[in-house]
Amino acid sequence: MISQYQESLLLSARTFQSGLLDATYEDVLENIDSGIILFDELGVISFVNKQMYGMLELQRHSLVGCTMAHLLSHIQLNRFKKRQLLSSYREMIYKGKPNYEFVDEFGRYWRVSLSSGETMKGYYLFTVKEISDYKLIEQTAYQNDNLAMLGKLSASIAHEIRNPLTAIRGFIQLLRPHLHQLGKDEYARIILAEIDRANDIIHEFLMSSKPSVPQVGMISVSALLKEAVLLTESEALMKGCQIHLHPLQGDMAISVDVKQMKQVILNMIRNAMEAITERSDDYTGTIEIGARREGAEVRIFISDNGKGMDICTLDRLFSPFFTTKENGTGLGLSVSDRIVKNHGGCISVSSRVNEGTRFVISLPLIQ
């Protein structure tokens, strides 16, 4: 069975063949987004629109009156197009397939459709249409389904790993006094530190694959930033950094999951510390933290004068599992970005190599 669309194309093509096609029909066929080629009962091309001869990179007068054999031997038709024409002809004429898909030399996807049979009275109508956009959507949906399945499986495995780690940690703590007597307390300390690091990695992974729903509460921006600075000040001093908290102008309150938002800010401060320690030249590391009102939003900024990042790193910064750190998981900023978006905000970043990096967290204010 042929569609009404294809039947109208055939009718228009036949009318054109008989010389009775008016300007309206001709405009429709010439400007349609599909390539059209019509073979008569003798296998001779009787009509071809400009989309089709444009695809074939040939002139209309060199196509009309040709058979498929003549077309395949056309001196101006390149080898790749000849191969695709032959494949389409074989699959659809000899094997009876109504549709055939292929990829051209530029990586674009095309679909060829054939209408023939008794209703066509011996004619063969081929329509060719690019379907690259449809294929991209289809592949993206398929990939998302696979990632969702993998995420659920990985989260389940990660959750199960935490149970034996908890047991191992408990037994190491019980054995620690005996190790201390043997002068091996350092071993216990290293084991506990590595178990804690493994638990942190699993926690970040679980947050990335299935972040918890925000437990929203109101907090002032000033209180949030002061608490974050208090938690990181001593660590910054040990790494030779100075944290400068800019005084905030006016009262600004946000409705957020305080624990999650604190995690975001702490993660960015610690990233700033690492960027400062990784810079090779002799200088004083400084981390600037502050916030300002912009309309109905607050802009929280965290900037440093560390080693900075190039454009390639910035492009992939929030991608899961991407990291430039030797022992990093690549999940910290990905999770932070997800948390901020769940609160109706966004994160922007600017950076220059050997000059520093500036993160800006935008969040809606409570009016």
How would you describe the overall organization of this protein?
With 367 residues, this protein is an alpha+beta fold. It has 3 domains: 127 residues, PAS domain (Beta-Lactamase), CATH 3.30.450; 74 residues; 148 residues, Histidine kinase-like ATPase, C-terminal domain (Heat Shock Protein 90). The protein has 11 helices and 12 strands. The strands form 3 sheets. The chain has a 5-stranded antiparallel sheet, sandwiched between helices. It has a 5-stranded mixed sheet with strand order 7-9-10-12-11, covered by helices on one side. A hairpin with a 5-residue loop joins β1 and β2. α6 packs antiparallel against α7, α8 runs parallel beside α9 and α9 packs antiparallel against α11. It is elongated, with a radius of gyration of 33 Å. Keywords: ATP-binding, Kinase, Nucleotide-binding, Phosphoprotein, Transferase, Two-component regulatory system. This is histidine kinase. InterPro entries: HATPase_C_sf (IPR036890), HATPase_dom (IPR003594), His_kinase_dom (IPR005467), HisK_dim/P_dom (IPR003661), HisK_dim/P_sf (IPR036097), PAS (IPR000014), PAS-like_dom_sf (IPR035965), PAS_fold (IPR013767). GO terms for molecular function: ATP binding; phosphorelay sensor kinase activity. Its EC number is 2.7.13.3.
Helical content (DSSP H or I, runs of 4+): 40-55%
User: How far do the termini sit from each other?
Assistant: 62 Å
- Fourth-level CATH superfamily of the largest domain: Histidine kinase-like ATPase, C-terminal domain
Specify the biggest β-sheet.
5 strands, antiparallel
Number of helices: 11
What's the order of the H and E elements? HHEEHHHEEEHHEHEEHEEHHEE
Number of strands: 12
Which strand-content bin applies to the residues? 15-25%
- Spatially, the strands of the biggest sheet line up as 2-1-5-4-3
Integer-rounded radius of gyration:
33 Å
Just give the CATH class of the largest domain.
Alpha Beta
CATH fold node name of the largest domain: Heat Shock Protein 90
Mean pLDDT: 81
What shape does the CA trace take? elongated
List the uncertain runs: 16-21
Q: Which class of secondary structure composition applies to the elements? A: alpha+beta
The count of domains is 3
Query: What's the CATH architecture of the largest domain?
Result: 2-Layer Sandwich
